[in-house]
Design a protein that fits this description.
Blueprint: E1 4-7, E2 10-13, E3 18-24, E4 33-39, E5 46-52, E6 55-58, E7 66-71, E8 76-81, E9 90-97, E10 113-114, E11 118-123
Parallel strand pairs: 2-11
Antiparallel strand pairs: 1-3, 3-8, 4-5, 4-9, 5-6, 7-8, 9-10, 9-11
Length: 124
């Protein structure tokens, strides 16, 4: 089981930026992939971005605005969020895929470790 701790959430106006961080208890490069998900009230958890040994995957709704990256020396994954919109408001979760699990970088079934989440609120 991988321990994940998110930070960096907060409140920002539309058009603003935030950077989320996810500190992992293992070397992130050893995972199948690391990802960020979000869940708004009353909605299902959705995949936002994922990174696997340099390859990145993004949901269509955030392409061109969000960037996922990792610092293997710090066992940390980041999500840089620019041009934020009110519809980006949600609880954001970091997730890790380790071991033998289905390959699904933007789906919850592709992950077996989750952080507690950090709230992002974007006002118009």
């Amino acid at each position: 089981q991988v321990q994940l701790v998110e930070s960096g959430g907060g409140s920002v106006q539309a058009g603003g930026s935030l950077r989320l961080s996810c500190a992992a208890s293992v070397n992130t490069y050893s995972s199948n992939y690391m990802g960020w998900f979000r869940q708004a009230p009353g909605k299902e958890r959705e995949g936002v971005a994922s990174i696997s040994r340099g390859s990145t995957y993004y949901a269509d709704s955030v392409k061109g605005r969000f960037t996922i990256s990792q610092d293997n020396a710090k066992n940390t994954v980041y999500l840089q969020m620019n041009s934020l919109k009110p519809e980006d408001t949600a609880m954001y979760y970091c997730a890790a895929s380790v071991g033998n699990i289905v390959w699904a970088p933007l789906a919850t079934r592709g992950y077996n470790s989750w952080g507690q989440g950090t709230q992002v609120t974007v006002s118009s």
